[in-house]
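Backbone-to-sequence.
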């Protein structure tokens, strides 16, 4: 079996990853995946395509989206819609939902994967840097959730939301901004999972730990090397681990699950520590 590089699988290897799911599981269904141009988002889109879903992929980089779309068609998705969208802008989100509804007439699954952060000590955050992370990881996620939930409510159709967050439960030194945003999304999801149950809308979150992907490129080589030792299984996960968890929650297998946080991190929230910045001498054990 092909093992991922420190930055994940190439497209060919990703397309050939084994899956436990039957090939036509999502035949006839429509899934929106944000941030699908690379990393975890691409893996999620690849798996949905292999399972027969029609796909909407959105993000801010048209070249990456088009490259992903070519693979999705090769993998068997009967229809792929590419939309360049900045989820920080609610008007663009509303336009996205309008375009999708006109094209497909339905949406079954929304995967809010778009997001990002940069490693830096919290004392050094600028106002601009803080707002950029919060606007994408919290506000953008919410704009997508609300816009689609309103459409489902108004059309009397059921839907399913899976939000990709992070393992914020024990803190993540160096990315306090994303911990704040991801924790907010998690508890927002728990709340609206109750409010929206009457409309047949399920809302869940997945918290990936250290996952070998292009997202590792923003961290120092020392941090990336340390990630493998930050959980009791002593290795990083791969993007397919997260994609399969998303399918589990959005398929009939998850029909009685809502308001939950599924952590995919090799037990990292139970043991170990993950520094995304240089570990201060204060925390180093003297020998």
């Amino acid at each position: 079996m092909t093992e991922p590089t420190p930055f994940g699988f190439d497209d060919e290897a990703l397309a050939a990853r084994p899956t436990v799911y039957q090939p036509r599981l999502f035949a006839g269904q429509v899934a929106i995946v944000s941030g699908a141009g690379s990393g975890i988002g691409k893996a999620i889109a690849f798996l949905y395509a292999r399972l027969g879903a029609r796909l909407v992929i959105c993000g801010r980089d048209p070249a990456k989206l088009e490259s992903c779309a070519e693979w999705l068609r090769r993998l068997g998705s009967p229809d792929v819609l590419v939309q360049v969208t900045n989820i920080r802008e609610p008007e663009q989100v509303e336009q996205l939902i309008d375009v999708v509804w006109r094209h497909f007439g339905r949406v079954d699954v929304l995967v809010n994967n778009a997001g990002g952060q940069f490693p830096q000590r919290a004392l050094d955050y600028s106002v601009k840097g803080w707002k950029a992370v919060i606007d994408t990881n919290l506000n953008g996620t919410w704009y997508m959730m609300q816009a689609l939930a309103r459409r489902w409510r108004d059309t009397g159709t059921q839907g399913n939301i899976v939000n990709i967050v992070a393992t914020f439960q024990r803190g993540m030194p160096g990315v306090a901004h994303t911990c704040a945003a991801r924790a907010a999304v998690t508890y927002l999801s728990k709340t609206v999972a109750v409010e929206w149950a009457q409309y047949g809308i399920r809302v869940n979150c997945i918290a990936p730990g250290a996952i070998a992907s292009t997202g590792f490129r923003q961290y120092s080589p020392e941090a990336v090397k340390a990630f493998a030792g930050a959980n009791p299984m002593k290795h990083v996960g791969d993007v397919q681990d997260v994609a399969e968890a998303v399918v589990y929650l959005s398929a009939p297998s998850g029909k009685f699950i809502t308001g939950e946080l599924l952590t995919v991190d090799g037990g990292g929230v139970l043991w170990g520590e993950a520094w995304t910045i240089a570990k201060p001498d204060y925390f180093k054990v003297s020998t």
